[in-house]
Amino acid sequence: MDGSGHDRVYICEVVARDGFQNEARFVETADKIALIDALSKTGVAKIEATAFVSPKAVPNMRDAAQVMTQITRRPGLVYSALVPNLRGAMAALEAGADELNLVFSVSDSHNMANVRMTSADSLRAFEDIFALSRAHGTPAAVTLATSFGCPFEGRVDGERLLDFYGRCITMGASAMALADTTGMGNPAQVERLVGRALALHPHTPLGLHFHNTRGMGLANVLAAYRAGARCFDASLGGIGGCPFAPGATGNICTEDTVHMFEEMGIATGVDLPALMDLSRRLPGLIGHETPGQVAKAGRSGDLHPPPAQAASMAAQAR
Amino acid sequence: MDGSGHDRVYICEVVARDGFQNEARFVETADKIALIDALSKTGVAKIEATAFVSPKAVPNMRDAAQVMTQITRRPGLVYSALVPNLRGAMAALEAGADELNLVFSVSDSHNMANVRMTSADSLRAFEDIFALSRAHGTPAAVTLATSFGCPFEGRVDGERLLDFYGRCITMGASAMALADTTGMGNPAQVERLVGRALALHPHTPLGLHFHNTRGMGLANVLAAYRAGARCFDASLGGIGGCPFAPGATGNICTEDTVHMFEEMGIATGVDLPALMDLSRRLPGLIGHETPGQVAKAGRSGDLHPPPAQAASMAAQAR
Question: Which of residues 136-155 of A touch B (CB under 8 A)?
Answer without folding.
Answer: 143, 145, 149, 151-155
